[in-house]
UniProtKB/TrEMBL annotation:
Coiled coil: none annotated. This is Hsp20/alpha crystallin family protein. Belongs to the small heat shock protein (HSP20) family. PANTHER family: HEAT-SHOCK PROTEIN 20 FAMILY MEMBER (PTHR11527). Pfam families: HSP20. Residues 25-137 form the SHSP domain. Signal peptide: none annotated.
Amino acid sequence: MLMRTDPFRELDRLTQQMFGHTQGTWSRPTPMPMDAYRSGDEFVVCFDLPGVSADAIELDVERNVLTVKAERRPLPHDEDVEMQVSERPLGAFSRQLFLGDTLDADNIKASYDSGVLTLRIPVAEKAKPRKIAIESGDSGHKEISA
């Protein structure tokens, strides 16, 4: 099971909408949008990172905390360029997720395609349903699903 880790995310989003976001004025990294869902025996988490190169993405797991960091760098342009509109946020993006004990943090797989980082986190073996044999006094065995 995944748990949200940033209780101030909505407050940051509302503040950015009301007052605008000027690059460099926020001390906290900008969070990245994500979807998370369970598909069979794995959780799938997708992060939107348009315009971020794969080498600018960093994934770390420490004590069941998954940290995703990314950086969108400015496009190189000539010195004589006068920017007319600059709405795409640049800089650091960060997101942390607490991974429950039912997930296998040692076997996370990551892929990056078309600006979407996809993580596949398997459900731990100990969390999967299993059958338990019940012994009875009359030498017969019966299996019940747990």
